[in-house]
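[Automated response] Your request has been received and processed.

Submitted sequence:
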Amino acid sequence: MIPLEFSTIFQTEIVLIFLFAGIVKGLIGLGIPMITLSLMSLFQPVPSAVVITLLPSFLTNVWQAFKGGKMLILLKKLWVLILMVPPGIWVGTYFLDKFDPPLFSVILGVLLLIFASLSLGGFTVQVPKGKENPWGFFVGIFGGVMLGMTGIFSVPSIFYIYGLGLNRDELVQALGIVLNTVTVFLAIALYQMEILYEKQLLLSIGAFFGTACGMLIGQQIRQYVSEGLFRKIFLCFLMVLGTYIVTNALNDLEVLTFSISK
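Generated structure:
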């Protein structure tokens, strides 16, 4: 007989959520946590939804990081950024109780919206050739601080990766490499908070298969999408992500009376 947790969580709605998140992930390289947490939390408590999302997010990031054949080339551009994230997180968590994290989240979400809107309008951000590591130093520190304070790593890391001038497949692979770091630190944080439970991890393993199927579909779609259309889709998703961040942060500040993820 199927345990109650399995019979309720793996209903059609949940499978479709992870399948859809996988398609978006395979197409543009990010989006699993935002999609799964905002939709799955309608059926599951948020902490449980976070744990269930953890393994699909991590394994698809690993898959994404190694698929493409440009690992060493991309690591040369990204290693300093990745290395500086941990000290940035430490600084961010130190200041966590000294500032108002939702207010910073609003700022980060608005920056995402501005960046995506300007980029769709023709504005270009470009990291100077040969200066990737000096820029990566500051981006890694700042991104780590924001991750430690708000749980958000998108700003300015996505701006930096987007500005490297990578093609669509390289951009997706670079996101996989960098997002692995974030997922690992999230897992460590959940473990220290004693939120990780065996049953939830088993559910997370099951959820990965739905995500993997979606990711295969998304990767196939990407092959038929031109570079220009890919960037428009990517930037449009950043606008959705920015809106999602701002909405939840305003709810935490009690400016709004609802939240996408609650």
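Summary generated for your ticket: The radius of gyration is 18 Å. Residues 4-252 form one domain.
If you did not submit this request, please reply to this message.
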